[in-house]
Design a protein that fits this description.
heterodimer, A: mainly alpha, 8 strands, B: alpha/beta, Rossmann fold, 6-stranded mixed beta sheet, 10 strands
Chain lengths: 432, 260
């Protein structure tokens, strides 16, 4: 027998991992993930471009409901590779631990899925950034989405190792879609265990431990599943499972409490001068556009007694000199950072301005009909544009009378009217 | 003989069928042929020797270590680092290049990473695929894939090389080169070659073991088997001396087994 030196054990998976990363379904998974998210985002660009929260919310939805099932299916296909390629027998004759071989085969899928997500995130961020007026995506949500994608890839791989059925991958994708999507309709706090749940982030921020807890939950489950199918000592799966089991009660018991108030969203930023136009800190960069959109309305009210001194995009705190205006949301009033539907915006402000919020029993009375007609006519006159008036106040004799008044008389009448703009006493509203 | 492979009482069952029935065998360095009809148990023996399958009973000692029992995990891992195996059905990853695939197997064999790249090139060169080393596996012909199978088996310069039908799909020229390679490898390692092509055994092997119905039907050198063919009284048109010897040994074993 020839005695040869025993080969040095090679621990580093470098070349094998590099090969697995470059070959097979890994790169396709990354490409499909990026394309799926990219096409989804592009198709709904009007609804998110220019707003970080909307951008990340839609990306979160796409990543968890579309890309996660996709990654799971691709990894399932990869997991079943040794069955399809009949390599099991040869691999059993090699000393490398089964879990190492499987980790090297599964990790590229997780990495590629995350890479596809990161590409989509980078593209979406680049598309939003020029119009968002500063800020950026929430790192914690990026971590949660990336962890979910990686976890679904590892879970899918484990399913592929166990299930030799050729249709396992597409069936798993459908099941994963349902498994991730259905909890969104739940009202209980257990829904927060679902990484695909839609978070309300408009004026809230995740707490610091949100991302680590969610990553431990999804990652723990996935690593437990992979360990159970790949490790020689299957009981080792209990360790990651214990990690997942430890954080799950924390997530469920905290529920909505995983999100705290966002100071920037609650901060009010106002223009200088009078009247003030105020938006949340997130939308401070929109103040010039909103001010310009309301310039006609504020100009017509300038100097009138009872006219608001502040326009705020949240319920006024019962101040007579405040008026509420709609939030310039992406998807309707905002398109790539530009305020659009300005006449509608002004119309909504005018209607809110003259909102009387009176008891229902007054409605329908003759005197109240007069007040309503007067309010609509004044709102129409305030928005100024004839085109807009034709849209919102198409046939109003009150408006014609208001327009026909001499300027001085109209200002006098408007002064009396504005003093009673929120009054529920019809007798206090001057006749037009 | 300095045995690198020793099996005793080796029994392998596939469901209710007994593939190997209490077989005792030993092999030392050199090239050994495993001959036998289809279903005789050659592949079962090779699979068990490769440690890819566990025996139902018996003792297996490879390269000085017992590896048959489930508890022999560490010894089995140590032997596997010094072992090369080409299964009858050679599975591979079609998207890998030849270099990547052989390097992947080198990683699975826990080879020293500093020597692996050179070992891969040498193994691929030895099977005559140096010019296709960066070709994807899916672009290779059946014979070339088989040669990649041999390359992956020898990449770690194994002390024990187990080849199951290695020449299937090779053209005559490649087969000649393969036999030369086997003779070369057999100078330092124990090579066990399972085949039903007696020409491979004649030209490449020193010893021959004939398996029939899960039992050892004959053991000897190729010369002895060929001599058995010459002495067997068969018509020379029935085949080469070794083929006649193969038939004679098989019939003799069947007659003995039938008498028992």
């Amino acid at each position: 027998m020839t005695v040869t030196e025993a080969p040095v054990r090679r621990k580093a998976p470098g070349p094998a991992l590099r090969t697995e990363v470059r070959r097979g379904v890994g790169p396709w998974t990354g490409l499909c993930t990026a394309l799926t998210l990219g096409v989804t985002m592009a198709a709904k660009a009007d609804q998110w471009q220019g707003d970080w929260i909307e951008t990340q919310s839609l990306l979160h939805t796409g990543a968890t409901l579309l890309a996660c099932p996709l990654a799971a299916a691709a990894a399932c296909w990869q997991g079943a590779r040794d069955h399809r390629r009949s390599t099991d027998e040869l691999w059993r004759s090699t000393p490398r631990a089964r879990w190492q071989r499987m980790a090297v085969a599964a990790l590229p899928l997780a990495l590629w899925a995350v890479a596809g997500y990161v590409v989509a995130l980078a593209g979406s961020s680049a598309a939003t950034w020029p119009y968002a007026g500063g800020g950026g995506p929430l790192l914690s949500l990026v971590v949660v989405d990336a962890a979910a994608l990686a976890a679904m890839a590892l879970l899918g791989f484990a399913v592929g190792v166990l299930c030799r059925w050729r249709l396992a991958a597409p069936v798993l994708a459908v099941l994963m879609y349902l498994l991730l999507g259905v909890p969104n309709y739940s009202e209980t706090s257990t829904q927060y265990l679902d990484p695909a749940v839609q978070y309300v982030l408009w004026d809230r921020l995740p707490v610091w431990w949100f991302a680590p807890a969610m990553a431990a939950w999804t990652g723990g489950l996935a690593v437990a599943a992979l360990t159970a199918v790949a490790a020689r000592r299957r009981l080792a799966a209990l360790v990651p499972l214990a990690v997942a089991a430890a954080v799950a009660p924390l997530i469920v018991s905290t529920g909505d409490g995983m999100f705290r108030d966002d100071p920037a969203a609650h901060r009010i930023a106002c223009t200088e001068g009078s009247p003030q136009i105020c938006l949340s800190g997130h939308q401070e960069h929109l103040l010039p556009q909103v001010t310009e959109a309301l310039s006609g309305l504020t100009g017509r009210l300038e100097g009138l007694p009872g006219a608001p001194k502040r326009y705020v995009d949240r319920p006024p705190a019962q101040h007579a000199d405040e008026a509420r205006m709609p939030t310039p949301n992406v998807g309707w009033y905002l398109l790539r950072g530009r305020l659009q539907h300005k006449e509608d915006f002004a119309w909504q402000v005018a209607r809110q301005l003259l909102d009387r919020d009176c008891p229902v029993h007054e409605a329908g009375s003759r005197s109240w009909n007069r007040v309503t007609g007067t309010d609509i006519a004044v709102a129409g006159w305030l928005i100024g544009s004839h085109t807009a008036q034709m849209t919102y106040v198409p046939d109003s004799p009150e408006l014609r009378r208001l327009e026909a008044m001499p300027d001085a008389g109209r200002r006098a009448w408007l002064g009396r009217y504005m003093s009673a703009r929120n009054s529920c006493d019809a007798s206090k509203v001057p006749v037009l | 003989m300095n045995s690198t492979v020793k099996v005793s009482g080796l029994t392998v069952r596939h469901r209710r069928r007994t593939a190997l029935d209490s077989v005792d065998l030993d092999f030392g360095p050199g090239v050994h042929g495993l001959l036998g009809p289809n279903g005789a148990g050659k592949t079962s023996l090779i699979r068990v020797l490769s440690t890819a399958a566990a025996p139902d009973a018996g003792r297996i000692e490879l390269l000085g270590s017992d590896v048959g029992a489930a508890s022999d995990h560490r010894a089995r891992a140590e032997v596997r680092r010094r072992l090369g195996y080409l299964p009858q059905e050679f599975g591979h990853y079609a998207g890998f290049t030849v270099r990547e695939f052989v390097a992947y197997v080198a990683w699975l064999k826990e080879m020293d990473s500093t020597r692996a790249a050179a070992a891969v090139e040498r193994a691929v060169d030895r099977v005559g695929l140096a010019d296709r080393i960066d070709s994807r596996m899916k672009t290779l012909s059946g014979g070339m894939v088989r040669r990649v199978g041999i390359a992956q088996a020898i990449v770690n310069e194994p002390e024990l090389l187990l080849l199951d039908e290695p020449t299937a799909g090779l053209d005559p020229e490649q087969r000649v080169e393969f036999r030369a390679l086997m003779r070369d490898l057999g100078e330092h390692a124990t090579v066990i070659l399972s085949t039903h092509l007696v020409e491979d055994v004649v030209t490449a092997c020193e010893g021959v073991t004939l398996i029939e119905a899960g039992r050892v039907a004959y053991r000897g050198t190729t010369r002895e088997l060929a001599a058995l063919g010459k002495d067997g009284g068969q018509d020379e048109r029935a085949g080469s001396p070794i083929e006649r010897g193969y038939t004679t040994a098989l019939r003799s074993h069947r007659a003995t087994a039938g008498a028992r």
